[in-house]
Each structure stands twice: as C-alpha cells, then as structure tokens.
Amino acid sequence: PGRDPAQPMTTRQLNRACHAAAQMAEINKRVSLHTLRHSFATHLLEQNIDVRVIQVLLGHAKLDTTALYTRVATKTISEVISPLEHIALKLKEIRPPG
C-alpha cells in the first residue's frame, strides 16, 4: 500500500523523504526541510535571481525576511564589483601599468 499520488504529502512524509534523500546522497550533516528551503533560496541568489522573485517563491510577506538569505550567499557577495572597482578596471584598460 503506497501513497496515493492524488493526495498531498503530509509534513511527516515530506520529512521522511528529505531524510531518505540525504541518506542516499551520503550527506552526514543534519538535514531538514528548512535546510532544503534555505539552500534553494541561496542557490537562486547565487544565480543572480532577483530577491523579489525569491520572496514570491518562498511566500514571504516582507522582503526583510527574504533578505536574511542574502547573508549566506557569500559567493554572490564576493563577486560583486563596486562602482569604484569598476572604474579602476576601466582605467587599467585605458592606461596599462608601466
């Protein structure tokens, strides 16, 4: 007797599926549905998806809640070039050192 695909999964069933997937992937860290949700949002940020789109996907009423995920998107943050850095790069192209 399997699960009826026409019926929505319960929270318990989702948790079991999440833990089973983590086990099959040989992930030894603690994993939860919240971990999956958080990873999803972080990966979207790292793909430069607009934070307002992520807000809608996660169902957050306030952008401030979604903005919490930006603290973990270190790859995206480290790749940001400030306007001053951008100007310096342009100047190097115009006047190479030496």
Outline of this structure?
With 98 residues, this protein is mainly alpha-helical. Helix content is 60%, strand content 0%.
Radius of gyration: 21 Å
**Molecular shape:** elongated
Number of strands: 0
Note the total helix count: 6
Strand fraction: under 5%
Fraction of residues in helix: 55-70%
**In terms of per-residue confidence, which ranges show pLDDT below 50 for 5 or more consecutive residues?**
none
Order of helices and strands: HHHHHH
Q: Tell me the span between the first and last alpha carbons.
A: 76 Å
Mean pLDDT: 83
What does this 3D model show about the protein?
By secondary structure, the protein is mainly α. The protein has one domain (11-94). It is built from 6 helices and no strands. The longest helix has 14 residues, at 11-24. The relative contact order is 0.08. The mean pLDDT is 83.
